[in-house]
Amino acid sequence: MLTVKLIDRYGAVFIAVLAAAAVIVPFCNLAIEPGSAFHIPDYLLPLIGKYLCFALLAISIDLIWGYCGILSLGHGAFFALGGYAMGMYLMRQIGPRGVYGHPILPDFMVFLNFQDLPWFWLGFDSFLFAMVMVLLVPGVLAFVFGWFAFRSRVTGVYLSIITQAMTFALMLAFFRNDMGFGGNNGLTDFKDILGFSVQAGETRAVLFALSAAALGLGYLLCRYVVTSKLGKVLVAVRDAESRTRFLGYRVENYKLAVFVLSAMLAGLAGALYVPQVGIINPSEFAPANSIEAVIWVAVGGRGTLVGAALGALVVNVGKSWFTGAIPEFWLFALGALFVVVTLFLPKGILGTLQDYLGHPKAAKPAPEPDGAAVAHPAE
Amino acid sequence: MSLLSFRAFHHLTRALGRSVRFCALAGLVVLALAPSVHAEPVDDALAAFAADGFDDTQKGIDILVSSGHDSAEAILAALSAGKLMVRNDDKALFIEGKAGAFTDARTGASASVDAAKLKVVRLNNRLRRSVQAALGAVTLQAPSPARRIAAARAVQRSRDPAALPAVDAALARETDNGARAALQTARAAIIVAAKDAPEAERIAAVELIAAEANPDAAALLRSVQADAPQALRTAAEEGIAGIERSLAFWNAMQNVTYGISLGSVLLLAAIGLAITFGVMGVINMAHGEMVMIGAYTTYVVQDLIRDHAPQLFGSSLFFAIPLAFLVSGAVGVAIERGVIRFLYGRPLETLLATWGISLILQQAVRTIFGPSNREVGTPDWMSGAFQLGGLSLTYNRVAIVIFAMLVFAALLLVLKKTTLGLQVRAVTQNRRMASSMGIRTDFVDAMTFGLGSGVAGIAGVALSQIDNVSPNLGQGYIIDSFMVVVFGGVGNLWGTLVGALTLGVANKFLEPYAGAVLGKIILLVAIILFIQKRPRGLFALKGRAVEA
Amino acid sequence: MLSTFAKAAKGISTFAAAALVAGSVTAASAQETIKVGVLHSLSGTMAISETTLKDVMLMLIDEQNKKGGLLGKKLEAVVVDPASNWPLFAEKARELIAQENVAAVFGCWTSVSRKSVLPVFKELNSILFYPVQYEGEESEKNVFYTGAAPNQQAIPAVDYLEKEEGVERWVLAGTDYVYPRTTNKILEAYLKGKGVKDEDIMINYTPFGHSDWQTIVSDIKKFGSSGKKTAVVSTINGDANVPFYKELANQGVKATDIPVVAFSVGEEELAGIDTGPLVGHLAAWNYFQSIDTPANEAFIKEWQAYTKNSERVTNDPMEAHVIGFNMWVKAVEKAGTTDTDKVIDAIVGIKVPNLTGGTSEMLPNHHITKPVFIGEVNAEGQFDVVWNTDDLVPGDAWSDFLEGSKDLEADWVSKKCGNFNTKTGKCGGQAS
Predict the structure, then answer these.
(1) What is the pLDDT of residues A220-252, one digit of tens each?
(2) Could you please report the per-residue DSSP string of B329-368?
(3) Which terminus of chain C has fewer Cβ atoms in its 10 Å neighbourhood, N or C?
(4) Residue B85, SS3?
């Protein structure tokens, strides 16, 4: 228990698979001729890339929920903010190639009668600036939000609901056309990124490899956090917040640090997501999206990190598959999946797998109940 | 007679027949276009209606009104209600009565006609206005005061100078005070607009109208043209200013009523959640779907009533309320027994499972009833609005406010005064202890969840009156419901009441200044900040219980 | 240790494999039929409108197959559910085109869903038929717009109100998204051009699914009580309409006092409301179910038989799909192939009868000619036509009333360009 390896055996598999995917998938797509059994068709590349971004979002949620007991029902907001930062960069790259041919303003601003670029769009023509914003905007929002919330000792379901209020408010705000973020249509019709066409196969391949790398590095970072001394304190907060406080730890600072880190990871995931799906719009802020992301984590196995990624993958592959195969009934399948997982695999897929195969020393499943629970009076 | 001559005779009769028909047709056209010397004006009017062009119909209305014929009122009423029918082949006009019976429009005698050959005489808005004004002029001397008042209102809206003699005549005979006042206002409305009336009379009319402090009166006064005499204009401006002063106060009051109304909707939507989430601790994401099931139950009840017992339609909601409670409650009990009972002590997993259930329920409803909106009718007694001072209140909103309060009171009684309520509180406070005291915790759990779900179903009945009945109904209310419960304080029904009303009123006061969207955003941010200040909501549970 | 490693790896790879197999299995049998993609939401918020369009497409494809298919092959519908989720629209479009090899796609409802799939259709060079009235300001090589452009709906409606009802004061009420924004901007410019003053125009935007209309309806009442005849031009979207009309009815706003003309309320939407109190409110469309023509009668009969429901209503976007599908069939027959570029070239100029007695033509700007009808709501939940254009109106991609777009022109035949600037004579919309 005292020394915990940075990479346990599930982590090793995870990293290995990711590394292999990062190399093999683009290779099979670009270098192998279509028609060959090993060829990966073009449409799968951004699709799997999207799953990887969702997996990174899931890991960021697992970091705070699984290890620190903070159930955020608004993590989609950080994801979307990262996405918007990237989207704004991509919009600026369109330059005069919009339908109205305005040298600077994006199309939606032209027909909403904007005369100048709003101040918050300045600087987004620089990739470096945009990338800083991808991390900074979600990070700052999380810092401000967490600063107030954790200091006021808002916990449990109250915290969950106000995170939901946060993402809901942001969604409404971004829907407003007056805000200057493109309203309901959001940002779309991207042309190129760093001078490379976003639709070119090579760009796609690079984005895919980057998503895989980000997921791998994000995992390692989270793993580093949870296996460090900081991680021990986090687990203590999760399991007995008051006791940890009485022991002299500044609980709110630990929570704040990990919350901000998690938000930045979510922002990064959003930034990688946008060029691959080609659109970012306010529905990404929808509370339902955030709830769904939490469900990925639960399906995969909370407090395992790898499980979170696995859950995101399973649910989204299922969604892609069912919406095509049984379009009329896929919601039944998805709903049933959630119910069945809760009832029969309470520790999620990976947690159950661990039970079945025996625990590796490091991966300790999350005990119940926890601080994020509803005030379940006097149990 | 030889064969040849027979044939010639046949030709002759055919030709004769054709020309007779032609004459009839020509006559009709003449009737439609110009008053004929032979026929009474009412025949001209009917012929004009039969032509069924908007301009023809207008002409028909004018002729009918000036004719003063006995059947004019019946014909105009039928026209206004869309019950005046024209027969395709001979252009005869009929009035559709109750249950498919028809009467001849000209004679008033009952007639048996093939309904398939009839076509309604069409109206557009312009005609509808002029029919109503005409009807008003014709019914000014109707026997019942209520109808006379309605007629006076119609005349007032039309401001038709042609109706002035009729109004004067009616005023001379009027005995009922209410009807007299209405007639005077109608007369004033006409005179204010009439340029040729004496100035002193017009100013008096302005003052009469200004005494009615409502927006319609202000509108009337604003219509005084700029070219009117100076004294008249001053009087009108003073009148408007006076009305606006009194309206400013009533506006604020009106916002409060809107807020209370919105608050009661929120209360209804949230109160079931206050049980399943607040009291039991289940993060019930399927709560919205319970509301939706209640709304669909209302739809089914109304559908059955329409088919089998249309006379009961006015009371359909009273049948729907208990049924919605039972149906949603039963679904709730099934969910509790089937899924949630395995998850006590793991509240966050209830989030996951109930989210799945909500997806399944939505899609199930979509499969059974189709994805589009279902029509839920509003009974007559809930339609329309009434004036209370300067407030305009709609019956359905008032009904919902009262209903929400009744549901709240009933729920409070159940929890505080019944054995079940006692057991519920015992189990949620200390499950093991309650169990050792002999309480069947399983049963109590199922009943509590059923109660919360059933109350959500009842909310669905109310919401079906103001919102879409579609599979997405529940989704629209789930977030607001959670906000209300958390804002008010989990586990406290009074908190939910105060929370819902506060949010409703605040929303309605923000809306005129900030707009609907920004108002809502401000409110959400306010909730977030409020929770920082009071991390357990408005009415926090005190004591050790909260530190679970 | 090794075995667990292997097991875990196997588990993960099975998922990857499952995703891959999905593509290859269905693609194998593709040669026998011509596939037609149907991209309409069957779940989520837009299912309420879009599910009907999916059914219409299935019916049309069924009919065509009964007539012997197309180019000697049977048509096969490929239905997917983008679930009212805009990024999923793009993903599903990619799946239809790249994986299922569909010859054309019929789909989308909201503007954002169209904007989301646009880059996919451009990249993979396929064809989209978009059947819904929309804001214009777009003309793409790969998209055919069979719904109304603003000049085929909004402008005639305003003209009607002004002439027939003598309206002088206007409330432009809409949901806050791009279609109402653009339509209202065009109308505002148009009305001001006609001499309507600023204070006689009130513009109001509400969020999607807005359900509490008390304040706004009372504001409209107030605005309408100035003594001048007032009308509401509503671009309120979908779900928000039912509570809006219920509130209008309850607050006693009658069509004879303040008429509401709507651009997004059709027969399908009225099916959810008791229309008794709404009689006289208006809608402007290019098709109404109540229009009495043999073609329409046959279509309604066929539709009700197909859905086995004698009360199913028809609406404007359905007719747009009928026209679009028939145009596509004719174009494919003319080109002798389903090859995208050849069909795009062949389809311009194709004429097919619409359901209201006229003949619609595909124009070089990829919009079609349509008649405009104004209907008043009647007590049966249908519309009585009170006015219509004598001729068909050609759809205009770029509005003549908007700064920036009035110089643009779309012509995919002679100029091969969707945003040709007539001032500079350059493609690409460049102002200089």
Answers:
(1) 999 999 999 999 999 999 999 889 999 999 999
(2) HHHHHHHHHHTGGGGTT-HHHHHHHHHHHHHHHHHHHHHH
(3) N
(4) strand
Contact A331/B363, CB-based, under 8 Å? yes
Integer-rounded Cα radius of gyration of chain B:
33
* pLDDT grade for B311, boundaries at 50, 70 and 90: confident
Two tokens at C248? Answer: 């209008």
Residue ranges of alpha helices (H) inside chain A are 9-30, 44-68, 75-94, 107-111, 127-151, 156-175, 201-227, 229-239, 241-246, 251-277, 287-300, 306-325, 330-344, 348-357
Phi, psi (deg, nearest 5) at residue C104: -155, 160
The whole-angstrom distance between B366's CA and the closest CA on chain C is 8
Tens-digit pLDDT profile for residues A99-137? 888 888 888 888 788 888 999 999 999 999 999 999 999
**Chain C partners of B82 at a C-beta cutoff of 8 Å?**
279, 378-379
Residue C258 lies in a domain: yes
Rg of chain C, C-alpha, whole Å: 23
Q: What are the tens digits of pLDDT across the range A302-351?
A: 899 999 999 999 999 998 888 888 888 888 998 998 899 888 888 888 88
In a domain, C194, yes or no: yes
Asked if residue C426 is part of any domain, the answer here is no
Query: Between residues 23 and 82 of chain A, which touch chain B (CB distance below 8 Å)?
Result: 71
Residue C260 to residue C281: CA distance in whole angstroms: 5
Q: With contacts defined as CB-CB under 8 Å, which chain A residues touch C118? A: 188-189
Q: Are A342 and B353 within 8 A, CB to CB?
A: yes
Q: How many residues comprise chain C?
A: 432
Q: Domains in chain B, please, with CATH?
A: 25-123 (no CATH), 127-228 (no CATH), 250-543 (1.10.3470)
Look up the domain containing C262 and give its range: 151-285
Q: How far is C308 from chain B (nearest CA, A)?
A: 13
CATH number of the domain where residue C234 is located:
3.40.50.2300
For residue B346, pLDDT over 70 is answered with yes
**C47 within domain boundaries:** no
Q: How far is CA B284 from CA A222, A231, A311, B14, B357, in A?
A: 31, 31, 22, 82, 10
- The 3-state secondary structure of C294-305 reads HHHHHHHHHHHH
In this predicted structure, the answer to whether residue C7 has a pLDDT above a threshold of 60 is: no
pLDDT confidence band for A360 (50 / 70 / 90): low
Percentages helix, strand, coil for chain C (3-state, rounded to 5) are 45, 20, 35
Q: Which residues pair with C114 in a beta bridge?
A: none
Whole-angstrom Cα distance, residue C410 to residue C426?
A: 12
